[in-house]
Amino acid sequence: MKRFFHLLGFRLFLGVAVTVAAATTLFTMFLVDWQSGKYISAAQQSATNISDLISRSTRYSMLLNRREDVYEIIKTIGKEPRIERIRIIDKKGIVNFSTQESEVGKSVDMNAEACIGCHSTGKPVVPQNDPTLTRIFDSPKGYRVIGVITPIRNDAGCAASSCHAHSASQTVLGILDVMIPLQEVDQNIAQFEQTQIIGSLLLFAVLTGFVSIFIWRMVNIPVKKLAVGTQEIVKGNLDHRIDVQTNDEIGSLAISFNQMTQELKRARKELTAWTQTLEQRVSEKTEELRRAQKHMVQIEKMVSLGTLAATVAHELNNPLEGILTYAKLLRKKVGRGTPSAEDTQEMIGELTLIADETARCGNIVKNLLLFSREKVGEFKDSDLRFIIGQSLRLIDHHLKMNNIISEVKIDEHPVILYCDAHQLEEALLALEINAVEAMPAGGTFHIAVKELTYLNAVQIDITDTGTGIKEDEMPHIFEPFYTTKKDGKGTGLGLSVVYGIIERHSGSISVDSKPGIGTTFTITLPRQSAPQEPGASPH
Ligand SMILES: Nc1ncnc2c1ncn2[C@@H]1O[C@H](COP(=O)(O)OP(=O)(O)OP(=O)(O)O)[C@@H](O)[C@H]1O
Ligand SMILES: [Mg+2]
């Protein structure tokens, strides 16, 4: 039912049906009312006619004051089957005569249904223009009765008659009350009513039938076709056409809809063609870009290789030049013959310098090898506490020499990491050496290990109270060969090696430093069970 109610056709039908029902009901009521009035008027007319007849037939007997004759005439007329009762009531309300003999001589109840019409105010009212008074009331026998009252006036002839006791001032002598049963009239009304109701129902059925067929054909079917059409469009079927050939608004809607579908189809075709062209263009451009990028990478490789080669050459050239100079000098000195004790002392100094510079070259080469090593070494589960302990043991001597207090904050239980322990130790050592070198006048060195359970990672903080890093140096510290250390004390490869190692462990490294206060390097290492793709980046 709810589904039906949402149908446009059903709503229209309902509206029309309600309107037709209301109209036919009102029309039927009006007709029945009108017809009833006609029937009642006819009955009233009939009673009035009888009153007239009585008045005219009894006038002569009344003038002669022959009451018996008057009553006999009325009795004879009252036998007419269509007359309920005829009676004469005098001014005092006493029934002088009645076809219903039992009430003769009795006083009329002024509150009775037949009398209340005129005596409601207590004083009888006799209409001047309408000499008859009509009322309808229920008889004790169970049917309706119409009563017509005609005043018996004291006309001139009567008042002048010698036999009469009525004075001329007395205008109304009494009333003639003629009552007619409405049984037949009511039957006719009921029959008329019944016929009208049946007729109205038939009219209603025929009208609503016609209207529903009309709505079904003119609204339901076209609207359904439109709905099916839109569904087809939603499904993507743009070849669907709506077959509604009416000349009304729905017909034009269907035509517009079909045109719209056609336009949509054309637009979609254009769009598909555009998409294809675009895709082709994109793939062509992508290919172009890929080629260009490859070329760029190649160029970049060449450039960085060139830069690296130049930097390495420069870095190696300085110590090698020194080595060469001292080697030449020594050869000269040795060529002069047996050296004196003083020369020997000098030569030993120069040989030491050669050894130092050679060691520096070795250092550069070793770090370069570490830096360029792409492949990971031996990965296995190792305890981070052990790795840190190892690295600290190696710089223990330096710490003591430089008056540095070291603090290590690490959990009691093993912190197992899947890593290359040797490389990790190398990275920690490089950071620890940097910290020591940043505190030439002593200070505090602090290592803290935190387990980041929510990230399934481990964080290592290496803090010193050294010189700190200046803001303008910060972006360069991870660059290979960047060093602020004078007199060839640093190669500038330490942090680049650290960065490479952390990256190979899929971790990250960041630095926080304040010049004059100190520096903290923070390493985060995931607790993975197998090495991941490199993804580390300095922050
Ligand atoms: N803890 C630190 N405190 C202050 N400055 C630092 C610290 N660590 C690194 N630096 C700065 O970063 C620079 C680069 O460090 P890196 O370890 O790469 O090279 P290096 O220490 O100079 O030489 P190398 O480590 O090769 O002997 C350093 O020269 C120094 O200026
Ligand atoms: Mg260093």
Key structural traits:
539 residues, alpha+beta, Beta-Lactamase, Helix Hairpins, Heat Shock Protein 90, 3 domains, five-stranded antiparallel beta sheet, five-stranded mixed beta sheet, 11 helices, 12 strands, 55% helix, rod-shaped, disordered C terminus, binds adenosine-5'-triphosphate, binds magnesium ion
What's the short story on this structure?
The protein is an alpha+beta fold and 539 residues long.
Q: Can you give a write-up of this model?
A:
The protein folds into 3 domains: 2-188, PAS domain (Beta-Lactamase), CATH 3.30.450; 269-372, Helix Hairpins (Orthogonal Bundle), CATH 1.10.287; 375-526, Heat Shock Protein 90. The chain is built from 11 helices and 12 strands. It has helices at residues 2-5, 8-63, 67-78, 116-119, 156-160, 183-235, 249-335, 341-372, 384-401, 421-437, 494-504, and strands at 85-90, 95-98, 133-138, 144-153, 172-181, 380-383, 404-409, 416-419, 443-452, 457-464, 508-514, 518-526. The strands form 3 sheets. It has a 5-stranded antiparallel beta sheet. β11 and β12 form a beta hairpin. α2 runs antiparallel to α3 and α2 (8-63) packs antiparallel against α6 (183-235). It is rod-shaped. It starts with a helix and ends in a 13-residue tail after the last strand. The protein binds adenosine-5'-triphosphate and magnesium ion.
